[in-house]
Amino acid sequence: VRILRSAWVARLAALVLLVSGLSLSKHRADSEAATLEVPDGAYGWTAELPVGERFMDGYHVVKNMGDVPVKIIRVTSELTGRTLREEGARVALLDRGYVAWQYLPSWPPREPKLGTVVPAEGAVLRPGHKASTYGYELLLGYEVIGKGRSTRKSVTVEYEVGGRRYKQTYVATLAICSPKPYKPGCADEYAGTF
Amino acid sequence: VTRTGASLAAALTLVSAAPAAGGTAPAHSGATTSAAPGVPTAPPDHITAVEVNPGLSARLKAATGNAQLQTLLAGTLMDDQGRPVAGVEVRVDLEPSRAVVHRQPKNVGAMSLQLARAATDSAGRFELRVPKLADPFEGFADQDGTVSLLVGSFGRTHSLLYHLRVRPPATDGAGWTWASVDAAVISPQASTIRRSAKVRTQGLRALRLTAHRNAPRAKRAGGIDVGEACSHNAWTWRKATGIGDLERRWVNVQRIHTDNQIRARYEWSNTSNLETDAAANLGAKGVLVSAGFVRSETVSAGVDFTLPAFGYQDAQVDFTFRPYHLQCMNPITGHWYYSGKFEWRPEIFTGGNRFAKPYSAIFPCGQYVTPIEQRLWVARTSSFTYANGVSLLGVTLRSRQTNSENHKLTYTASSPTWICGKDDWPTRASQVREK
Q1: Cβ pair B380:A42 closer than 8 A
Q2: Which of B373, B379, B381 is facing A103, going by the closest CB pair?
Q3: Does B408 contact A190 at a Cβ distance shorter than 8 Å?
């Protein structure tokens, strides 16, 4: 009876350890995921551009709010329509001259005030005071490949913290109309609830 | 010392002669105000009141005896001179939602639900602990799921009323969070919390509230201060309905600054997230003090503001303000009597709107500058507090617009230019201007 009782106590202890381990692990995952702060709410911009233009959208500030590095794995756009093509993503580091540059009519961007620019895939966002206040700027490249209106609904960032992978999607819309001027005007891709 | 609210009558009916346990009865009930500028018509003694959510009252009562408690609010109570107010009782009540308040007939109040009360120690410290409760908070929560808490303390020499808006726990055991942080009442010692993302949770436990001195000749009834006696009893607010009780004031909702290249449009969809300080009369002598943020009683449609280039303006809207009298229940007779305390609150947006020149200087563009060339729109949660958003009967009150995804702020650049945010990059900043 004593042996049986001991076995049950051991099993119970193992179960408690397992449950508490899972709970701690989830807590750690939540905390690590929050290390990268992406834009929240909803915002976007609208432009009329000529067919063939390659341009940069730099209105994406991400912040490292933790005390460990964040490694970017991939940045992707949710596009609708047939007139806009994704050309890639880069990251402007902390030495840039402006916190975010909305639009440049070139891709890849050639602008000294963007400071050090690296490919988004594999970019390491180091922590620190400036990383958590000023943040890093994601630069997204697109090409207008036809006439009409196309939009971007959201942006997804996949990243790694402490050897684990996470993914966040945020609402930052684009509405691009071509040719320029576009009649009767290019409507915003408004994503609020007004 | 922590106790939950007084026991309440069972059903959602008019509350009459059911005495509340642990309460204090004044010698007799009676209105105490006299006519003076800014003092509304005294309310009748005998009003009735409805219990808003008897189920929640029952859950609270049941949970009090056997559940673990959690800290809802904690901090210190100081007087106007910064000295601790020791040995007085502080209470926190859940306030009825604006929809419930709005639909009450004349002379009927919707009762607050007392969550906890505790005494301050010699340093003025208090801690208000509540059972672990979760949704639903029907009858108390506004449409966005947030609730208003009222912290009160009526001592022999000092009184306090302070409203704050919080988000209740979604599940049992989860924490209460500040829906719209009021940095002005966070203890100066907690400056690190104020700057951190934890302000919504930890800030509620680092409050520094100010109690105001009672009027020296506050009328007493039978030797008992009716306000002080009110501390322990059930509360309700009664809307003043006297002719001439309404005041109309301009309230700031947004500050917009354009230079030579930007035109701005602010589409203010409705009034649901505009708050102003309540202006409370605690000493019953017509001296008003700020009593924390409250929302208007009704939600109305908003308006669009369009600002051309070279503008530096405050978008203002016209509101009516109405007095509400704090009534307390005599636990022995079950009758409601007037506490001698009242406050002015925003009631209805009249539809009036205008641009006005701001009083304060333009904020400097710091590190959050961005080149902009294309039309930008933003519909993000952001909050901006005006220190002098309303002027009412001799007191300057704050107004606060919390933008949500229910609004749209659009900046249109006629040629490439720069905009900057006051405290973050422009899509996240509380204020944006053209550089």
Answers
A1: yes
A2: B373
A3: yes
Predicted local distance difference test score (pLDDT) of residue B144? 87
Distance CA B380, CA B369 (A): 18
Among A41, A61, A135, the residue with its CB nearest the CB of B405 is A41
Cα gap A102→A59, rounded to integer Å = 5
Distance between CA atoms of A135 and B279, rounded to whole angstroms? 40
Q: Please, which residues bridge with residue A86 across strands?
A: A142
The span from the CA of B235 to the CA of B93, in Å, is 9
- Quick one: which of B340, B312, B266 has its CA closest to B434? B312
User: Nearest chain A Cα to B423, which residue?
Assistant: A133
Q: What are the φ/ψ torsions at residue A151 (nearest 5 degrees)?
A: -135, 160
The model scores a pTM over 0.95 = no
Average pLDDT score over chain B:
81
Q: Do A134 and B367 touch (CB under 8 A)?
A: yes
Range with the largest mean pLDDT of A11-25, A106-120, B160-174, B251-265: A106-120
Which tokens in the block code for residue A21?
């381990």
Predicted confidence (pLDDT) per residue in A136-146, tens digit: 999 999 999 99
Helices and strands of chain B, counted as H and E runs? 5, 29
Give, in degrees to the nearest 5, the angle at Cα B406 between B165 and B134. 35
CB nearest A99 (choices: B269, B370, B408): B370
Contacts of A7 (CB under 8 A, 6+ apart): none
> What are residue B221's phi and psi, to 5 degrees?
-120, 115
CB atoms B425 and A101 under 8 Å: no
Tokens of B112: 């607050």
Beta strand extents in A83-181 (DSSP E only): 84-92, 101-104, 117-119, 124-125, 136-144, 148-161, 164-178
Looking up tokens 């001991």 gives: A6
Check if B70 contacts A (Cβ < 8 Å): no
